[in-house]
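User: Could you walk me through two proteins back to back? I'd like the raw sequence and the structure tokens for each, with a short line separating them so I can tell where one ends and the next begins.

Assistant: Of course. Protein one, sequence then structure:
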Amino acid sequence: MDAEGLPKIVPPLPRPNEKALNLPLGTALAWLAAGWRDLRRNPLPSLLYGLAVFAVSIFVVWGMFRFEVDYFFFPALSGFLVLGPLIATGLYEKSRRLESGERTGFTRMLLVRPASRYQAIFLGLILLLLFMLWQRAAVLLYALHMGVRPFAGFDDILPMMFTTVTGWSLLITGTAIGGLFAAFAFAISVFAMPMMLEERTDALTAMGISLSLVWNNLPVMLIWGAIVVALFAVSVLTGFAGLIVIFPLLGHATWHAYRTIRVSRGERVFFWPE
């Protein structure tokens, strides 16, 4: 009580942020090591999964050049990072079953049924719409720099992009805007799809939780995002052949990232590699 007889106002005690785990930055490498361990255990289904992703990627690139829509090539590279967490669902299933000592075949990985059922399809549609929005933004960005004219082709556009002011402007702004799209899609889906695989929840809730977990563990997630981008760049430089190994590796590792960070029923769930 103060001198006037009124009760003192005591500010509430700070509440700990249960979603901020303060993980060391090296945890991202631990996830990668755990993903490699899952890849090595019964490797054939994972490699077949990566081979399928490689084959589809080559088919899509061939289709772009065959039907003369190759101006979508660079935006599609960013779009792959948007759709990647959805495509890796079968790899999450294998890692999930390995935790309980079960083996998983390639067919089961392709025909995986998430616990959230149709809500997983809804999440896929949202990511697909985000990908299409980025494609449209990329076309508008090209038109703002180059004018309303047909795509010049890679033989002309590549030298222009690296030797002219307009090209550098297009490259920098395109990379920045594409990075924002990819970062947002990564944040809302990196934990949403693994969560919907084993929990019955709706897509919007899963995306919100995923975004919250990424934001509250931003330092280690930035490291993890940089690892994903670097390994994807290696895959592109190898003519997408690197996806055969790199995509399963990242898929399995993402499952372990989810199991480390996900807060469930008020308890922190940790699955560390040995």
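----
Protein two, same layout:
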Amino acid sequence: MKKLFFVSLSLLLFGASLFAQEPLKVRADAFPPKDENNDVKATINMASTVADMANWNRYPTYETYIAMMQGWAEEFPTLCHLDTIGVSVNGRQILSMYIEVQTVVDLYRPEFFYSSTMHGDEVTGFVMMLRLIDTLLHGYGSNEQYTELINHTRISINPLSNPDGTYRSGNHTVRNAMRYNANFVDLNRNYPDPFGTEPMQSQQPENTAMINYVTNHNFRLSANLHGGAEVMNYPWDSFTSNEQPHPKRDWWISVCQRFIDTSRSYSNSHFRDTYPSGYTAGGDWYVISNGRQDYMNHYHNCLEMTMEISSDKTLNSDLLPEYWRFLQHPLVNYIEEIHNIDNSSAIEEVTSLPASTQIAIYPNPSKDKIFIREELTNQIELFDIKGIRLMQLPAGSRLVDLQGLPQGIYFLRSGNRTGKIVKR
């Protein structure tokens, strides 16, 4: 703890020297967290029916939220289906709307994931994600951008990943929401850490469910929405950029710049409370461990960033339409970024390769061993997602032992053929 404190203090002092004209705001996601009690001063109006959400200036009750998600699934059966990711400690549903065009031929389309409100009192993203679902579904066929996006992308949107924290005081209100889940655990300090530490408390049901969900998909790009500041936060969170920059740091910076530029074209006053640029590497702001962002990047080969989208964690409900005005277009455009990802990493994108070049393996995912269905004539190599070679096997080998490896994504290569492995 002392080492973390002094590193964090030095980062804060360094930031202050660079941006003396705009004092650095303490990271909303910092550890230990700061209880702001934003909702004491906020006007919080609740929607007890779906009709009450018509103007998008209210927060839904839990029952209204469930009804909205079920309603879209029923209204647009050929465009979306409702997934249950899991249930919370107190039995509330953790849902995701999976938006995709139903086709006879299952063409390759990359998978995108939005998730919000893993800190239960950071509820602006909750409503933004609900409105994004509504906008995409109702815009299909009439809005060219939305139509093209849905035609060429599989989009999963999880508006609320910590329902017990959000509805702490009961299903009827988000007032007095709390950061933690019902076990008083910070869900963003409760993921397997790819860089050597263990979760500070036993893995929570909400995170177990989320891990199982993302393991069963192949998300290539994602974002996790928070509140308490306005800044785009790209990986790594576990290191400063000087210690270990993310392999796609330059790409992340260009993505953040496009997001901020688009947002400021609708409201120039936002995304200025933390860094003048509106974005930062997570560890340059504040180093944390056991966070979801680094877990997704490392273990699932998924480019995930954290979007802090509102300075107040619990935003005045009357301001929700204003926030949608400057967030709508950058949020949609961020989904499109999945089609701009370069393949500069050491391992090719296996999912986009023709079936004839893929190595057939089973079972996949696997906890311990995988088997190769055919006899390969070239030496077989196993790589992690950073492109580091972990194992060499002679040509003709049929068994790959994964027992000594951590959970995550791995790749086999034999000659010009590759195969993707998920280790559970």
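The chain has two domains: 2-340, 352-423.

Let me know if you want the two compared in more detail.
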